[in-house]
Automatic annotation (TrEMBL):
Keywords: Pyridoxal phosphate
Family annotation (SUPFAM superfamilies): PLP-binding barrel
Organism from which the protein derives: Brevundimonas faecalis
Domain Alanine racemase N-terminal, residue spans: 42-229
PANTHER family for this protein: PROLINE SYNTHETASE CO-TRANSCRIBED BACTERIAL HOMOLOG PROTEIN, PYRIDOXAL PHOSPHATE HOMEOSTASIS PROTEIN
Pfam families: Ala_racemase_N
Keyword Ribosomal protein listed: no
Family per record: Belongs to the pyridoxal phosphate-binding protein YggS/PROSC family.
Protein name, per record: Pyridoxal phosphate homeostasis protein
CDD domains (alphabetical): PLPDE_III_YBL036c_like
Amino acid sequence: MTASTPASPFPSIADRFAAVRGHVVQAAVEAGRDPASIVLTAVSKTQGEAALQAALDAGQRVFGENRVQEAYAHWVDRRAAFPDLELRLIGPLQTNKATEAVALFDVIETLDREKLAAALAAAMKKTGRRPQVLIQVNTGAEPQKAGVLPDQADGLIASARDAYGLTVEGLMCIPPADAPPEPHFALLAEIAARNGLRVLSMGMSGDYQAAIRLGATHVRVGSALFGERRTP
Ligand SMILES: *Cc1c(COP(=O)(O)O)cnc(C)c1O
């Protein structure tokens, strides 16, 4: 028998994908949920070419980006080679970038105001593309954070659908960094349930298992898959 290779102290991206996928399945099973009902969104912001390629090699196809420009740089040339890519915008969107966002992304997770709903509707008309839309809810009512306030979410959901004709599939949140996330996940699930929305994008590297227990359909994981980001 030959000695086995010692485990590297620096796990590869392939190792990290395998580990996170395992944890997603485990959290789903523990919650009595079908693991196949949970989508792992790999957050590829700030990553270099080698990391993107390693993720694709690991079979990953669903990616989240928080800036429109960077998402173009990362993905526009890869679309032809990977027709099953799914690109999700998870960062704040300015109305003057709505057309570029609609032209690239399959899902826009960060609708949080009427003015942006109007800009997205106009961009969809112009481009002929109809990405799905999630509404970002500022569950912690943090002044510096994007997202509609929880008590205004029902109104924005209704107007996005009825006044602007958007396909609102669900909700997204980023809980406060310094508090337990569970009450925020539960609040998001409650708002979704009373509005008949199916998709819940919640949970990041530090708390995706908790989010799955509380009903997440999409978890957005960056550093647990790629290692710590070089830029803040
Ligand atoms: C960066 C980012 C993530 C991923 O964060 P990690 O802690 O690295 O997993 C998830 N969601 C949003 C909106 C982000 O901007």
